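Why does this matter for the project? Reviewers at the last site visit asked to see concrete outputs rather than summary tables. In response, this paragraph embeds two records directly. Each consists of the residue sequence and, immediately after it, the corresponding structure tokens. Nothing has been edited or filtered.
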Amino acid sequence: MWDFDVLVLGSGPGGQKAAIAAAKLERRVAVVERRNMMGGVCINTGTIPSKTLREAVIHLTGLNQRGMYGQGYRVKDEITAADLGVRTQHVIGREVDVIRSQSARNHVAILHGLGHIYAVGDVIGFPSLAESYKVAALDALNKLRRVARFEL
């Protein structure tokens, strides 16, 4: 059993900012996150991958450089799905590294698994079918109100 002042479910944009803000206010903070989803949907399947694909296509087709080099200019003659996938995975990896380093710098613990609100102040996570752990967020709702300074 671990004890934290603030427990955040998910490390998407909102969860990440909440965890860092609470940590900067000297609270003991942990984030419960699925092992392969650090950064949430935004980083892994939503905004970042779609914008990265778009920018990779623009770059590889030479669209931004055609004014300087002419309409026939291309960075690469044949663009494959693998080319786009490599670039997308590289960008996702860098974004996940940023989240991990921010968490480490601010002493935010990352707990891998699925978090569920179990009772007031308690969250239970299931990192695997064979193992479970219980995390107590000490009077989490009241502390969150004081930390974040807004009404829930």
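We now turn to the second protein, recorded in exactly the same manner.
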Amino acid sequence: MNQQWWILHVKPQSIWSSAQQQKKNIFIGVIDSGLDIRHEDLQGRIQSGGYNFNDNNTNIMDLDGHGTQVAGVIAATTGINIGIAGVTGPFTMKILPIRKHCSSVKVLNLPTQ
């Protein structure tokens, strides 16, 4: 965790000790480029039922790696010496992957006052 600069600022360990008191499972939807369901850091942390809104099917495999990175920051398994530690740490939680990838960004020109 020493290489994860954000841990020093966010201090997620301060709540990790309360994971034993968790009464309900946590599900977090990640709307992004998909999710690599084979990623070692996310095993056991992926909720079935994800959807691909680009192709209207259930193929949620990541197109460019960004969605997997976002899911990892949230849910990567701690204490396995692979990759990073997710902010949710030891809490029982799963990512629901939603693939909706935009190849271009549209900028809105809003009036300023």
